[in-house]
Amino acid sequence: MTEPLILGIETSCDETAVGIVRGRTLLANVISSSVAEHARFGGVVPEIASRAHLEAMPNVLEQALNDAKVSLKDIDAFAVTAGPGLIGALLVGVSSASALSVALDKPIYGVNHLSAHIAVDALNSDHPLKPTIALLVSGGHSSILQVNDISSDVKVMGSTMDDAAGEAFDKIARLLELGFPGGPAIDKEAKAGNKSAIDFPRGLTHSNDQEAHAYDFSFSGLKTAVSRYLQQAPNAVRADVAASFQESVVDVLVTKAIAACKASGIDSLVIAGGVAANSRLREMAQERTAKAGIELRIPAMGLCTDNGAMVAALGSIAVSSGKQASQIGFAANSAAGLDQVIW
Amino acid sequence: MITLAIDTSTSRTSVALTDNGVVLFSAHHNDALAHGEVLPGLVRDALKAAERIDQVVVGMGPGPFTGLRVGITFAQSFALARQIPWQGVCSLDAIAVGVSEQEFMVTTDARRKEVFAAHYVDGKRLSSPIVCAPSQIENMEVPIHGEFSQEFPDATKLAALAQGETFTEPIYVRRPDAYPAPVGVKFRPMNAMDLVSVYAIEKVAYREDPWSMAQFKEELAGKNRWYLVAEFKGQVIGYVGALTNGDAVDVLTLTVSPDHRRKGIGREMLRRLIDWSRNKKVSGIMLEMRVGNAEAYPLYLANGFVPLQERKNYYAPGVHATVMRKELT
Ligand SMILES: [Zn+2]
Predict the structure, then answer these.
(1) Domain B185-327 belongs to what architecture?
(2) Which of B42, B69, B263 to mutate to test the interface with A (most CBs of A within 10 A)?
(3) Domain span including residue A232
(4) CA B123, CA B100: separation in Å to the nearest integer?
(5) What is the DSSP letter of A230?
(6) Both A25 and A101 in a single domain?
């Protein structure tokens, strides 16, 4: 039997994205982003995102089919992000995928966005899927997960108590007047700065946090510290502030992810989500996992930020592991947790 | 020619299948929050009546955004999957087809105590749909049909409507007031220090007939006035002024510097003006707008202003004004 051909649709935030995979082989990954339209508001505006999804969907679908050189009637199953995310945005993707499923009489899988971020690793490697620790960091989420089986057994080891890592980048970028989105802007600015110039706090890393919050994050104290620093030193070198802030965030992320690997006895780490595109995070993770004897995998750049390939990848895993398809008319869940992997 | 027809512009999700006017299937479900869950099942049921579909026709609104987009994106994707054409029609027209009176209004629930509405005479829609207060429609003293009298878009008639005016984009008459204020722009009362910058913008914005500096001074000192400026990086980039005049608020000016237009600054100033007017407990807001002001007109329409009359040569010979009013009830 040939491997299943899966088309995945992602519309949970500001990217309208369609990916196509055959088994674990990536055939197409098309992303249309409305991020520029949100920039002047300093963050994603749900209504603007939903409008953009509706406008972009037909073109993104056609482009993905062209890139993959397949036609819709060849698709074996459709996968779509059903949550978590912005409800109006999710509904565009779910409705589009439902229409394809009904029109072509093919199964549909509603899938979890967070799980999909990690599942994209299946396209990244030839080796068999095995238990791994996942550091999931983006504008909407920051958590450390123990992934025993991506389609059925994911345990949350820790998550952020306040802002997501990407959100922290956005807020600091605003303080430094670097624009939106903050992640790439700070990454770029930091390259010209001294990362040890300012000793910003590392949230939840004190010894007395070890018991209750060993794998949790908190970035609000860091944000306050940067803001206070800028008030006291208005002429500070922006690049130094950016580099020192970034160093603090990345240090905490990597330290806790490696600690999670050690505590669980799992010598494999996947870093996923938009913040995984950060160059300093990649660099530090590389160094420290090598030292600790942990295998590190980070998806290619275009597969870190929200995309359709990750949704198709999780759909493909669901199909090949014999998971039941979703009932047509399933409800998108904007607040879905990791216990709901397939709808 | 078999048509799959879908409408999700109201609290009802409607699906029909027609073959040149003959109804093969028709079903609906009433739930303002469940379009996404209901629609796929209804369409799957429809396909049991006829597997082959030749075209899709969908109601493009106006309607509450979230439900509306469910129907449109479904129709588009279904058409793409089957490689058949799709067309969009005005959902209010799909209510009007069931009415036999000579003149009437059609309204649907726009939420937040407003209605989407359109005016029909002799079976024709007179203008683009608007969003406004229900009292504004009642004041017209013509029969009202629509969602509030349990009349919904008739999906079995959509195929016939697709012979007339069609739409390729959703009919968004209410600009998303969900948009936040532009980042970094401050809004504060105008003071005498602002007059130089305000006058500078005025001269550029209204080349033929700007207010004079003396007029601005007089205005600022005048009674029952309210003047606000928008400031970006310490520089004035727009201003709005209004006057309480008995039971109404008159908008005196709403101006954004040409360099800062299309950033939501006018919309935010108008929003603040409407809030201020509500606090004054007046019955409505009046304004005059230059005929042909293509940027301002949709903004006013979207905020519930309705054109009342035209004033010839109001600004200058040949430059006419449209008088608009928004009811505050
Ligand atoms: Zn994401």
Answers:
(1) 3-Layer(aba) Sandwich (3.40)
(2) B69
(3) 132-298
(4) 8
(5) H
(6) yes
Residues A294, A257 contacting (CB under 8 angstroms): no
β-pair type (B55-59, B22-30): unpaired
Distance from CA of B20 to the nearest CA of A (A): 21
Q: Sign of torsion, CA A291 A160 A272 A121?
A: positive
Q: What is the pLDDT of residues B220-256, one digit of tens each?
A: 888 999 999 999 988 999 999 999 988 899 999 999 9
Helix (H) / strand (E) containing B276: helix B265-279
Query: How far apart are the CA of A114 and the centre of ligand 1, in A?
Result: 6
Sign of the CA dihedral running B203, B204, B209, B210: negative
Alpha-helical regions (H) of A71-122:
87-104, 113-119
Q: Please name the residue that has the structure tokens 């009830």.
A: B329
CB contact under 8 A, B70 and A95: yes
End-to-end CA distance of chain A: 26
Are A166 and A193 in a shared domain? yes
> Is A34 a residue whose pLDDT tops 90?
no
Taking the domains of chain B in order of start, what are their residue ranges? 2-161, 185-327
The pLDDT-based confidence of B179 (bands split at 50, 70, 90) is: low
Which H or E run includes A294? none
Cis peptide before B170 (omega within 30 of 0): no
- Exposed/middle/buried for residue A76 (C-beta within 10 Å: 0-12, 13-18, 19+): middle
| CATH topology (fold) of B2-161 | Nucleotidyltransferase; domain 5 (3.30.420)
Mean of pLDDT values over B196-201: 93
Within 8 A of B69 by CB-CB distance, chain A residues are 50, 53-54, 88, 91-92, 95
Residues of B in Cβ contact (< 8 Å) with A331:
36-37
Which amino acid is it at B62?
Answer: P
Structure tokens at A50: 């939903």
What is the per-residue pLDDT across B315-329, written as a single tens digit (0 to 9) for each?
778 788 889 999 887
